C-alpha cells in the first residue's frame, strides 16, 4: 500500500495483466476473432492488414486467421469496421455498435457535418438541402445494392461525383469529391460502415455497407459502459490514458469513472484506475512469451503513458512523426524491437533493447516470426504508416 492507502500495482504486474488480458501469452490465446475483439474492445481498423495481423498474433490456431476474420467481418456480421474513438476507424464486436456510437460518435458526427457544410458553402457548392437529397438518394442506393464502392454509388446517384475546391488560395488547397466527404461523414454518424474490400485481405479499397441497426442509447450510460469494458481489458490506467484513448473531455472521463465505481490504485506514474473488484494481485503467465504485433496494434497503442512497456529511447525508430506505432517485437510484456516483411516475403526482425534477453528469448521470437510467415503466405504487407525501423528492415 502507498501513503494514500491504495494498493500499488507495479510494472511487473501490469505486464502480467497485459500478457493475459491482451491475449498475448501462449496459454491466453483465443479460439476466434470474436473472442479477441471482445477481450480487447477494439482493433485498430485504419490499416486493413493490421486487423488480421492483430488477430493472428492472438489466435491459438493462426492458420485460420484470414478465413475466420473475414467470416466474422463479412459473413456472420459478428464484427464491424466503423468510426469510433478519436475519429479513428476500428473493428468492434457488432453488439458494441450502439455503445460506441452514443459514447463517442455523436459529438464527432455533429462537428464533421458542420465542417462539411461550411467548406461546401465557402466553395460556392450547393446548400444543405441539396446535400440532404444526395445523402438520402445514396443511402437508398446502398440499401438496394447491399454494399458498394463510392464509384458504384455514383452511378446510381451522379451528384456524388461533383467536386468543390477546399481552402481556395491556401497552401493546402485541394479538390474534394462529394462522395468522399459525404461517405466519411455518414460513417462517423453511424449510418454506413466499411464492407468487404476489393481484392485480398490487405486491400484498402473498401466497399461501403449500411450500418447494422442499433438502439439509441443515453450518452452518459454508453460512456460508462465503454469505459468499464476498456478498463476490464486494460486497467490499470491513468486519467490521461483514458482521456487519450476515448477522445473525451476530462469531465466525461471522471463522470464515467464515478458511474462504474472504478477503484483508484497507485502506479509508478501516479494514480490509476481499475474496475471495481480488480485491485487484487494478478500472477503472470506460466511460461515466458514472445509476440510480433503489427503497426497500430491495440496493445502497443492502448495507453498514452507507455514507459512501463516501451522504453522512451526506442520510440524514434518504432513510431512515425504522427505518433503511429509500427510493427513491434515483444518479450514478456515489453517492446524489445521491431519487425518487417521484405519483398520476397521474409519476416525479419531486430532487437533494440537486449536487456535481460538471452537465447530463450531469441528462439521464441524467431519461432513467432516463423509462425507469422506460415499463415501470411504469399501476401505482402506494407504498413499504411511507415516507421524508420520498418523501412530499414524491409529494404
Automatic annotation (TrEMBL):
What protein am I looking at?
A: Winged helix DNA-binding domain-containing protein
Q: Which organism is it from?
A: Streptomyces coelicolor (strain ATCC BAA-471 / A3(2) / M145)
Amino acid at each position: 500500500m502507498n501513503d494514500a492507502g491504495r494498493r500499488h500495482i507495479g510494472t511487473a504486474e501490469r505486464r502480467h495483466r497485459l500478457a493475459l488480458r491482451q491475449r498475448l501469452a501462449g496459454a491466453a490465446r483465443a479460439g476466434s476473432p470474436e473472442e479477441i475483439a471482445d477481450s480487447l474492445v477494439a482493433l485498430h481498423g485504419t490499416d486493413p492488414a493490421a486487423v488480421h495481423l492483430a488477430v493472428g498474433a492472438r489466435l491459438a490456431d493462426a492458420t485460420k486467421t484470414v478465413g475466420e476474420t473475414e467470416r466474422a467481418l463479412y459473413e456472420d456480421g459478428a464484427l464491424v469496421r466503423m468510426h469510433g474513438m478519436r475519429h479513428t476507424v476500428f473493428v468492434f464486436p457488432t453488439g458494441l455498435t450502439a455503445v460506441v456510437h452514443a459514447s463517442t460518435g455523436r459529438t464527432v458526427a455533429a462537428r464533421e457535418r458542420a465542417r462539411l457544410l461550411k467548406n461546401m458553402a465557402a466553395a460556392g457548392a450547393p446548400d444543405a438541402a441539396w446535400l440532404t437529397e444526395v445523402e438520402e438518394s445514396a443511402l437508398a442506393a446502398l440499401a438496394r445494392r447491399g454494399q458498394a464502392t463510392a464509384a458504384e454509388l455514383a452511378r446510381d446517384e451522379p451528384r456524388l461525383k461533383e467536386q468543390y475546391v477546399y481552402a481556395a488560395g491556401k497552401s493546402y488547397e485541394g479538390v474534394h469529391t462529394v462522395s468522399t466527404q459525404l461517405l466519411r461523414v455518414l460513417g462517423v454518424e453511424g449510418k454506413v460502415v466499411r464492407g468487404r474490400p476489393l481484392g485480398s485481405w490487405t486491400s484498402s479499397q473498401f466497399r461501403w455497407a449500411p450500418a447494422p441497426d442499433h438502439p439509441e442509447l443515453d450518452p452518459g450510460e454508453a460512456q460508462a459502459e465503454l469505459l468499464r469494458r476498456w478498463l476490464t481489458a486494460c486497467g490499470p490506467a491513468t486519467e490521461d490514458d483514458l482521456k487519450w484513448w476515448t477522445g473525451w473531455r476530462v469531465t466525461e472521463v471522471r463522470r464515467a469513472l464515478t458511474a462504474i465505481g472504478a477503484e483508484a490504485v497507485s502506479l509508478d506514474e501516479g494514480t490509476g484506475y481499475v474496475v471495481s473488484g480488480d485491485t487484487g494481485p494478478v500472477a503472470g503467465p506460466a511460461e515466458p512469451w514472445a509476440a510480433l504485433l503489427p503497426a497500430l496494434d491495440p496493445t502497443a497503442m492502448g495507453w498514452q503513458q507507455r514507459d512501463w512497456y516501451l522504453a522512451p529511447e526506442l520510440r524514434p525508430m518504432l513510431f512515425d512523426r504522427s505518433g503511429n506505432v509500427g510493427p513491434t517485437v515483444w518479450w514478456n510484456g515489453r517492446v524489445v524491437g521491431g519487425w518487417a516483411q521484405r519483398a520476397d516475403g521474409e519476416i525479419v526482425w531486430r532487437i533494440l533493447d537486449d536487456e535481460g534477453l538471452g537465447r530463450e528469448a531469441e528462439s521464441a521470437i524467431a519461432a513467432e516470426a516463423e509462425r507469422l510467415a506460415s499463415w501470411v503466405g504469399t501476401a505482402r504487407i506494407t504498413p499504411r504508416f511507415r516507421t524508420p525501423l520498418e523501412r530499414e528492415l524491409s529494404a
